[in-house]
Write a structure and sequence with these properties.
Number of helices: 6
Largest sheet: 4 strands, antiparallel
Number of domains: 1
Number of strands: 4
Helix content: 25-40%
Strand order of the largest sheet: 1-2-4-3
Distance between the termini: 29 Å
Structural class: alpha+beta
Shape: globular
CATH topology: NADH Oxidase
CATH architecture: 3-Layer(aba) Sandwich
CATH superfamily: NADH Oxidase
CATH class: Alpha Beta
């Protein structure tokens, strides 16, 4: 698969089969995420792979959409702002950019391995922090449900090139 084909294949999966994720696929995804770039190579992140019933229930209580309950696993993508690079001229902290790059590595690697995934940012951060799943010093930025897709991709709608490239 070319990179363009991989980008075309990746979609926001919102229905999963109940089968577990094969360990070799998970290890491949972890390695791809580990290789993601970050500002000044500070890697201000951590990723939690949750596939046990209790952990999944805790996460699902923080995002009240029924579809997420079909995922056999969810990755909590965490950032650590105090370990991220900050641009001197304006004080902009790059933790959000760094975690976004690594999360997209996760999503593309999962797609390449035949696993569905979806970026979920609209969750209750305070409720997730209160579950006891999040290590001290980290803030959850993204939830990524993972699993074998039980749905079909929808046609992508994207802006034309002339509206994106100037």
């Amino acid at each position: 698969m070319t990179f363009k084909e991989l980008c075309e294949a990746r979609y926001s999966c919102r229905n999963y089969k109940s089968e577990p994720i094969a360990s070799e696929k998970l290890e491949y995804i972890k390695e791809c995420v580990r290789l993601a770039p970050s500002a000044v190579n500070l890697q201000p992140w951590r990723f939690l792979f949750i596939d046990d019933k209790e952990g999944l229930q805790k996460i699902c209580s923080c995002y009240k959409r029924e579809w997420i309950q079909t995922a056999p696993a969810i990755v909590i993508c965490l950032k650590r702002e105090d370990e991220a690079w900050t641009r001197r001229c304006d004080g902009h902290n790059h933790a959000d950019i760094d975690i976004a790059i690594a999360t997209e590595h996760l999503c593309l690697a999962a797609t390449e391995q035949g696993l569905g995934n979806c970026w979920v940012c609209n969750f209750d951060v305070e409720a997730l922090m209160a579950t006891g799943l999040i290590p001290q010093g980290y803030t959850p930025a993204v939830l990524v449900p993972l699993g074998v897709p039980a749905d079909e991709p929808k046609e992508k709608t994207r802006k034309p090139l002339d509206e994106v490239w100037g």
